[in-house]
Amino acid sequence: MFVFVRAITYATLFIGLVLIYIPARVLSWSGIVRPAAIEVPQVAGMVTGAAGAAVALWCIFTFAAIGKGTPAPFDPPRRLVIRGPYRFVRNPMYIGAALALASAALFYESWSLLGYTGVFLLATHLFVIGYEEPALRRTFGPEYEAYCRQVRRWWPRLRTARKSDAA
Questions:
Q1: pLDDT over 50 at 166, yes or no
Q2: Counting CB atoms within 10 angstroms of each CB, which of 7, 46, 59, 110 has the fewest?
Q3: DSSP 102-148
Q4: Cα separation, 12 vs 8, whole angstroms
Q5: pLDDT value at position 159?
Q6: Residue 70 near residue 76, CB atoms below 8 Å
């Protein structure tokens, strides 16, 4: 139970800073305010944001339930998490966060927020390459290497099962 409390606490801090506070500052600095009417871009933004939030929450609970840890680098999972959303891509939590940011850019029709989303994606990619993957290789060794061969970093493999896969 305590692992769930830690995971929710760390996720709330991350979400509060990176997905709410900084985007609010970006919108404020660029002079963008809430749209007067809810139209197609706003609905698309809300749908995209809901999808991003669902993916991120699925990841957080998967880390706690299966990995017995949190998404925070200083309190990582004790077991390699390769189930749930992690069976499709290695970094679904970052994808969910990026979807949430992109949805806000769409909702507010904000180029500056879209730019922040791009900076977030670049920073995330560099963090994954420079820290996360080397740390996971050290911690989980061959098990992580096998996982990397099966699951892509950012894009799921789109292939049909071959007869040799079914056997």
A1: no
A2: 46
A3: HHHHHHHT-HHHHHHHHHHHHHHHHHIIIIIHHHHHHHHHHHHHHHH
A4: 6
A5: 65
A6: yes
Residue 64's contacts (CB-CB under 8 Å, 6 or more residues apart) are 3, 4, 6, 7, 70
How would residue 120 be classed by pLDDT, with cut points 50, 70 and 90?
A: very high
Whole-number pLDDT of residue 141: 95
**What values do phi and psi take at 125, rounded to 5?**
-60, -45
* Residues in Cβ contact with 24 at an 8 Å cutoff, skipping those fewer than 6 apart: none
CA distance 85 to 37: 35
Q: Is the pTM of this model over 0.85?
A: no
Please, which residues have CB within 8 angstroms of residue 8's CB and are 6 or more apart in sequence?
60
